[in-house]
Design the sequence.
């Protein structure tokens, strides 16, 4: 039931994860990220998504501490960067992430990219499984994994990833990947849900938005949620952070959902996970 910012989905290990959160990609560490995260928490957000490579985990941790909100009420995600893949290096990087955040545990830890040419995501995943069994992270998952990456990982793993965070928006609906994740009870999560603003003037989305008295961004976020895809739109402006969460007082019809699905162009704004090899 999508009722408000407390709405959650249950991952396959029983952990409840908020359907809507704040992403802090490209948010500067220090005052900017502290203000952004604190604004989100004040507006009722409880899920914050960061990553080691974002360079702002310290600021996220500061905002969490200054918010005064009980740790158990929050859902904090971070990601392992590519240069830290490998068993021992993953364990070290995880501890560094916890130190920067000032936390005792994470709610979700993700392998940021598969890097198939590096060939280390399986040993990296073994370290993730260790962290999970030790109770240092409540759920483990991956990011930017395609179906074949997931299949290769799962066949040699004890634990199936709980989450796969990927680029997902009306121009990239990832239907085959969504079907694979559904089959294996892997929750899909969207990054770049607004395609970095490139969809905000789309005529179909604008028409639907006008009908509901909403913005195109709100329509896209609502489409994510009704598609059972967790979404983490980013903003550094308090009014936009609040606006992005104002999506629980309307519902898209089946016809509108189909119209948005038909906008798919299999068009990425980010790199192809098969090719991306930055470390």
Sequence:
């Amino acid at each position: 039931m999508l009722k408000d910012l407390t709405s959650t989905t249950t991952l396959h290990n029983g952990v409840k994860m908020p359907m809507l959160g704040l992403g802090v990609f490209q948010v500067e560490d220090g005052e900017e990220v502290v203000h952004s995260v604190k604004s989100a928490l004040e507006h009722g957000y409880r899920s914050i998504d960061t990553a080691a490579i974002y360079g702002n985990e310290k600021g996220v941790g500061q905002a969490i501490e200054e918010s005064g909100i009980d740790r158990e009420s929050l859902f904090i995600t971070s990601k392992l960067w590519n240069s830290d893949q490998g068993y021992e290096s993953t364990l070290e990087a995880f501890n560094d992430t916890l130190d920067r955040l000032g936390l005792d545990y994470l709610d979700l830890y993700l392998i940021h990219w598969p890097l198939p040419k590096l060939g280390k995501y399986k040993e990296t995943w073994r370290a993730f499984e260790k962290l999970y069994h030790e109770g240092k992270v409540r759920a483990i998952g991956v990011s930017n994994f395609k179906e074949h990456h997931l299949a290769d990982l799962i066949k040699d793993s004890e634990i199936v990833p709980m989450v796969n965070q990927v680029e997902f928006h009306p121009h990239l609906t990832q239907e085959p990947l969504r079907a694979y994740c559904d089959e294996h009870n892997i929750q899909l999560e969207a990054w770049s849900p607004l395609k970095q603003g490139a969809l905000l003037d789309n005529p179909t989305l604008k028409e639907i938005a006008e009908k509901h008295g909403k913005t195109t961004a709100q329509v896209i976020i609502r489409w994510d949620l009704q598609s059972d895809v967790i979404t983490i739109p980013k903003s550094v402006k308090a009014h936009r952070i609040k606006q992005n969460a104002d999506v629980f007082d309307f519902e898209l019809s089946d016809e509108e959902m189909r119209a948005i699905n038909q906008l798919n162009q299999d068009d990425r704004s980010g790199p192809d996970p098969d090719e991306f090899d930055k470390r």
The longest strand covers residues 75-80. The chain has one domain: 8-198+229-236. Residues 142 and 164 are 5 Å apart (CA to CA).
